[in-house]
Amino acid sequence: MIAVIDYDAGNIKSVQKALEFLGGEVLVTRDPDEILAAERVILPGVGNFGDAMEKLENFGLVSVIKEVARRRIPFLGICLGLQLLFEESEESPGVQGLGLLKGKIVRIPKEEGLKIPQIGWNCLEYPSGGKLFQDVPEGSYVYFVHSYYLQADDKEIVKATAEYGVKVEASVEQDNIFACQFHPEKSSDVGLQILRNFLAV
Questions:
Q1: Using CA atoms, how far apart are residues 101 and 86, in angstroms rounded to an integer?
Q2: Where exactly are the structural domains of the chain?
Q3: Which H or E element spans position 66?
Q4: Mean pLDDT to the nearest integer, 92-118
Q5: Is 16 helix (H, G, I), strand (E, B) or coil?
Q6: Predicted confidence band of residue 129 (pLDDT cuts 50, 70, 90)
Q7: Rounded mean pLDDT of 172-190?
Q8: pTM of the model
Q9: Is 183 considered catalytic here?
Q10: Catalytic: which of 88, 169, 173, 185?
Q11: How many CA atoms lie within 13 A of 198 on its CB side?
């Protein structure tokens, strides 16, 4: 069973549908026992970093997510779900993230001809091999919607990048924790393969 964490942060339905299309048994939940009993856990998200952390706190989910990490249950963060895994974000100064991974989230700098937020398709490069990208050729296109991007302290965890005025660290992997800045559930066959790979870890 795959638990998709429900904390009122958008894009849950599309994640659920993509996983069910792949044959996954999906439970959308904020119940701690159900989350900790799952074989895999997904933290989706669209919206503001500070608002999202407040919701996770209010629903009692911060300690649950940290326990998922401690138990090494395979965990996937998507979009805002990636950003929340880190320590802080320029979007919400003074708000602590989950801190499961080291690094910060910063705003994409303004540049002539560059629209912010980035909305649309961009191609991936692989600085090192990641489990999510098995059978996904380098140069594959995925769908992004974001104004902020990751600067990870440890570049070894960065498994995919994309160029958008700056080098966007588009996917990370450390132990049981996986995350994508882009939306695999909206990235056609490439995204389905990435989700399929997560279901296989």
A1: 5
A2: 2-200
A3: helix 62-70
A4: 95
A5: helix
A6: confident
A7: 97
A8: 0.96
A9: yes
A10: 185
A11: 33
